[in-house]
Structure formats: C-alpha cells, structure tokens
Automatic annotation (TrEMBL):
Segments forming domain Radical SAM core: 197-434
GO cellular component: cytosol
InterPro entries: BchE-like, Cobalamin-bd, Cobalamin-bd_sf, Elp3/MiaA/NifB-like_rSAM, Methyltransferase_Class_B, rSAM, rSAM_horseshoe, rSAM_sf
Species in which this protein is naturally found: Desulfosarcina ovata subsp. sediminis
Domain B12-binding: 13-145
Protein name in UniProt: Uncharacterized protein
Keyword line: Iron, Iron-sulfur, Metal-binding, Methyltransferase, S-adenosyl-L-methionine, Transferase
Obligatory cofactor(s): [4Fe-4S] cluster
Domain of life the protein comes from: Bacteria
GO molecular function: 4 iron, 4 sulfur cluster binding; catalytic activity; cobalamin binding; metal ion binding
Length: 474
C-alpha cells in the first residue's frame, strides 16, 4: 500500500500562503512509524506541513503519489486543520483512508470521529505496531478483524467502536529508523535551540518512551520504558556519520527518569568519543551533581526543566510531585556542572493570584536560570485537571471539548477563580519581559561567556529573544 504521513501545521491552513514552521524539529514519531510500516512492505512518504504549510502543496503530493492511506499527525493546537485537510483529501479521492494520530488523541477518539465524518480511524498512543497492523488489514482482501488492533477507533455498522489501549511497545526492541524522510538542515532555523547548541543540523531522537509521573495538567498516560543504551548510542553514531549530525535533542519526557540508564548512555557516548552537543528535558528531582557532571562530559549543553512554579501550593495543586528545595538544588548543581538551564513555567493554576505569579517570576530571576518559557495552565480534554474542572463545574465538558477541537489556543478553557483570561495573557507578557530585559540578567549572561563562539551565540540569543518576547507582544 502507498502510505502518506502528514504532520499537520499549527496555524490555520486557510491563512497560510507562504512561510515556514522550521523552528520546530523533525517529526521524530512519524519517522519511527514510517520505518515500521516500510519494514512490513508498505511504500511510505512523509509530507511535513511545518516546512510547507500550504494546502495546495499537500493536495499536489496526494494527486501525484495517490496514497491508499493518509495518516494525519496533529497537536491539539491546530487540530482544526485536521478537519480541513481530511475534507480536502477526500475530495480528491473518497476511497483514501484517513487515519489520525499524535498528541491530539489525548482527546476522546469517539468525539473526534463524531465531529469529523471524514476520519476513518483514530489510533491512540504509539503507532508503530497498531498503524502497521491496520495497513496490513486494509491491504488484505478478506478475513480482517479491527477488534484485534490495540487503541484503534473505527466505524462499523453506523457506529464508532473504540478498542482499549492496553499494550505498549517494548522500548528495548525499538530499532532506529535508517530512513530519515526529511532534510535535517531545514529544521530548527531561527530557534533559540540553535543559539544554544549551534547551527543545524539538529536531530531529535528518543532514549525512552512514556512517563511514570502523574502531573494532572498532562495527558501522557503511557508507562515509562527504557530503550537499549547500546542501540541509543549506535543511533547517535549513525546519525553523525550518515547525516553529519552535530547537535542532538533527546525527545524523552524525562531523560534522567532512570539515572542508571542515563549514566550508561552518557558513559557510552564518552567511550565512543562522539563529541556531540545535546540537550534534554528532565525533572529537578531526577538529577544529582555527579550525574550532571557526567552529562556535561558527554556533551550536554542545556537541560529543559519542567519547574512550573516556585510555590509549593501550586506544585501540589498540579500534582507535580516536586519540592521547592529540589528545584533550587537542581539549578545550583546544573550551574556547577557547566550546563545551561531553561525553565518551563506555568501561570494561572487554580488558586494562584497575581501576587503569587509575580513572586514566582522574581524567584525565577534570582534562581540563576538561563532561559525561561511561560505558559498558561489550560484544560486540555482528556487530562485529569480537565476532568476535575468538569466535576467541580468550572467548565462544561462539551464546551471544553469543543475548545480543544477548535484547534485555537485561545478557545481552550483555563482553570482560575482569581484571574480572567485577559489578565493571565497580560501577566504572561509581563513576566517574560521582566525575566529577559533586566540589567542583572544581561550581566549574568555576559559573565558566563567562556570563548568567542559563546559570545556569537549570546548575540544571536539577544536577537531571538527581542523578536519573540518583545515584538510579538507589541
């Protein structure tokens, strides 16, 4: 079968004529799924609308390639494009099967299919096994049973049937995709990541799957599983030789969730003298000074910490499971190890006041963090926080779901009894500007310059931050 994978863009396709979303990384998940399908004998192609967001570009690919199956991978933000694109594809050939997957499937599958009659199937969670199996069955002439496919929602006899998601891939068995379907040089152009790590190519890969933590604002429910460290480092080695990779981002939810696993990967990177510069996401309670020093020796230049708040009350409300002391200890040790830090921060949690948010911003500045990204706590359909808000009458279930289906970030409900949405947007702008445009921050960044290359990167960072954190709020 001919299979076309499409990464759906974030912005409205109806508004996009030119431009690019290249400050995002490659579609890592689609690479793995496409590889699994190719190994089953299917012809595969990936069309990334982050690079070419024009609907006409997709329709041209569909007309030329004539796929039997189109797999649409989407975030919740921008999900309205799934509706638009599936209708366009069906207009070319109604026989094409539309399969939807990706982070948007945190939403109920049945709701997605009720809302969009052009969707034939929805696959929740990891797609390597379920998607490949679905394509095998669609290619068969008889004797197939969709009930055997884990996490699949499909139409049958005028009804929508949803199979439960009960099985998860053994991460140690995952083979890396030897066919990368996009040119790496086209990604991460203009991203702050390039100002930290260096110029592209910057590649993304996984060392683990899932997450064992239970933050209630997050829809991830897949259990944590580790990939074989030997395979991880062999993939890095291959990426360097085959694609001239110099910089890597580990796309794990928490790279150091298992410290022994992280130590093993770092030791192998040092042993094989890979000399790659890389970054990763992790939690403040999953690092120690010896581990951070080992990570630095292995090439780690930046860690993205999900801090969320410096208020223990807010951390507890979000079921974050971390303590304020652990945050300060992790940030102090990260500086000692010579690694830069980026803090993901949230505002607008239940019970959080303006004064608490401004105090958080002040504490963040004093913490010595190098970069910060602020976001509003939103009620994404399918998350525990969303369900709690529905039970408490804060938001109507239908309205919340429609907000997510709209694909518009401003239509997704929030959970605050102390601030209006407009007040939260103003605070987001306020704390972002306060963080980056203080004399103390500029001096601190200047004192950490160790060579000419870092000075050039700092100049690029100032330009990036001015464009993205000042001009975009003007």
């Amino acid at each position: 079968m001919n299979i076309l994978f499409v990464r759906v863009p974030l912005e409205s396709c109806e508004l996009v004529e030119y431009g690019t979303f290249s400050y995002f990384g490659e579609p890592t998940g689609l690479n793995y799924i496409a590889e699994a399908a190719a190994k089953r004998g299917h012809a595969v192609k990936i069309h990334d609308m982050y690079l070419d967001p024009s609907p006409d570009g997709l329709l041209s690919v569909v007309s030329d390639y004539r796929p039997d199956v189109v797999g649409l991978s989407s975030l919740i933000i921008g999900y309205d494009n799934v509706t638009l694109l599936s209708k366009m594809v069906k207009a070319i050939d109604p026989a094409i099967k539309i399969v939807v997957g990706g982070p948007c499937t945190f939403m109920p599958s049945i709701l997605m299919m009720q809302y969009n009659p052009d969707i034939d199937y929805v696959i929740k969670g990891e797609g390597e096994v379920s998607f490949a199996r679905l394509c095998d069955l669609l290619a068969a002439t008889a004797g197939f049973d969709f009930r055997e496919i884990d996490g699949l929602a499909y139409r049958a006899d005028g009804h929508i049937v949803e199979n439960p998601k009960t099985r998860f891939i053994n991460a140690r068995s995952i083979e890396f995709p030897v066919n990368r379907y996009q040119p790496y040089k086209d990604y991460m152009q203009g991203s702050i990541i390039t100002t930290i790590l260096g110029t592209p190519p910057i590649v993304f890969m996984e060392a683990s799957r899932g997450c064992s933590f239970k933050c209630n604002f997050c829809g991830v429910s897949e259990p944590y599983r580790k990939r074989d460290p030997e395979k991880v480092v062999s993939e890095l080695e291959w990426l360097k030789k085959k694609h001239n990779a110099r910089h890597v981002i580990f796309a794990d939810y928490s790279f150091t969730a298992n410290r022994i696993h992280a130590e093993t990967i770092c030791s192998l990177m040092i042993e094989r003298n890979l000399k790659l510069e890389w970054g990763c996401d992790t939690r403040v309670d999953c690092v120690s000074l010896p581990l951070l020093k080992l990570m630095r020796r292995a090439g780690c230049r930046v860690i993205f910490y999900g801090i969320e708040s410096f208020s223990q009350q807010t951390l507890d409300v979000l079921n974050k499971g971390t303590k304020i002391a652990a945050i300060h200890e992790a940030l102090k040790n990260t500086r000692k190890a010579g690694i830069q830090s980026l803090a993901y921060m949230m505002l607008g949690a239940p019970g959080e006041t303006r004064e608490m948010i401004l105090k958080n911003a002040e504490t963040l500045h004093k913490s010595g963090v190098d970069y910060a990204l602020w976001g509003i706590v939103r009620l994404f359909s399918g998350t525990p926080l969303f369900e709690s808000a529905v039970q408490m009458g804060v938001v109507h279930k239908h309205c919340g779901e429609m907000g997510c289906l709209s694909g518009d970030i401003d239509q997704i409900p929030v959970f605050s009894n102390t601030l209006t949405y407009d007040e939260m947007k103003d605070l987001e702008m306020n704390v972002t500007r306060r963080f980056y445009y203080r004399l103390g921050y500029v001096i601190r960044r200047l004192t950490r310059i160790r060579d000419g290359r870092e000075l050039v990167r700092l100049i690029k960072q100032v330009r990036y931050l001015f464009i993205n954190n000042v001009l975009r709020f003007c």
